[in-house]
Amino acid sequence: MNVAVIGIGRIGLPLAAAIASKGHRVFGCDIDAERVAAVNRGENPIPDEAGLSELLPALAASHALVATTDTATAVAQCDTVLFAVAVDVDGEGRADLEMLFGACDAVAKGLRPGTLCIFDTTLPVGTTRAQLAPRLESGGLVLGRDLFVAFSPERLLMGRVIEDLTKYPKVVGGIDRESGARAAAFYREVFGGEVYELANAETAELSKLSEGAYRDLNIALANELARVADAYGVDIAEVIRAANSQPYSHIHTPGTGVGGHCIPVYPHFLLQGRGPSSLSALGREVNDAMPAYAAARVDALLGGLAGKRVLILGLTFRPNVAVTPHTNAVDLLREFTARGAVVRGHDALLSEDGVRDLGFEPAPAPLAGYDVAVLHSYHRAYAALDWPAIAPLVLDARNALDRAALEAAGVRYVGIGRPATPD
Ligand SMILES: NC(=O)c1ccc[n+]([C@@H]2O[C@H](COP(=O)([O-])OP(=O)(O)OC[C@H]3O[C@@H](n4cnc5c(N)ncnc54)[C@H](O)[C@@H]3O)[C@@H](O)[C@H]2O)c1
Question: Looking at the annotation, which residues are catalytic?
Fold first, then answer.
């Protein structure tokens, strides 16, 4: 099969490589000429994506995977087109589809009769049918007769995309029965795993938003319970461990909010269109309030933050991936700065320019002499930090650290919903 993957970013590139590694010819289409050139040289632009560095050089050398900026020409040679172009929210919290529209317009120029187009990017319910499929219908091609369009969400974790591709069932829904059946057949042939063929594209779109909303709301519940735990001076880690020993309880871990361009974004898609979800709005509100709550907690512990030296460690949205959209580290910077603290940032995976791009003044080496250290993303590279040298107080913003080890080293510990070590 010849397959075009539109958008060879964090998701599209490992997806393209995984399909090419199964013996198919894949065109990776992107508007980023530098990325396209790097991929064609066999260089991996996403080194923290497991398995990709092993696959790419051979796939590029054999032309099993060819990257290109000429989307229309690539699409004209393909039976199937997968869209992995990102969708974010605009200033009003509405889905910003501009990049995806651009991709559709470029693809439409190359489509031939019989092509199957699958949208992988998470979308508000109804978007595939109402806004995307019609844009593909150019040059006399008619949906349902010449063109087949389906939605099939990526259910992957950045950093382990290739492994996850076959780990969970693939969910598909077409804009008509034939499109859904063709999309299901495509995934069965390429990955061989279980495929859930849903009634239509809208069902598949809502299933992906449901996964995201569940996780955002679950974390919101954990965060609210953490605040209750603080009010009673009990440790939320103990509470959750006990509660989750019952098989129907799956409470997530509290922390200073939710980052990345998935979980904090998708609930907004449920706030627009039909049947707006007020619970999704509330979850966003609870999670977005956590950075301010954490800063206030430290403020109270130290009797004020004015002039205090604060180090925020791990600025990416989660550990071990160099990805920063919607990272809560930026919210922590804002909240600590607003209380008069002098904040520095450090990230083991980002360059100093990358740290500055997030608005932080980079911490000079060695990491030492702060009043408080805030651990945001606990990268593997931070496993052997000299905490006592860094600061006498550590805020564990993700409840990820070994509290007992820190306390044994003489460091005062406070977590989210976890009592501070007595002074
Ligand atoms: N990142 C995740 O963990 C994750 C997980 C599950 C699902 N997803 C879904 O995958 C989507 C893509 O996420 P990502 O992290 O890969 O984004 P990304 O920003 O890393 O990649 C998107 C790529 O699309 C390219 N692009 C933009 N406009 C284009 C056009 N007109 N034609 C061709 N290429 C174009 C960009 O240059 C970029 O390389 C997300 O919106 C989300 O719905 C992401």
Answer: 208, 262
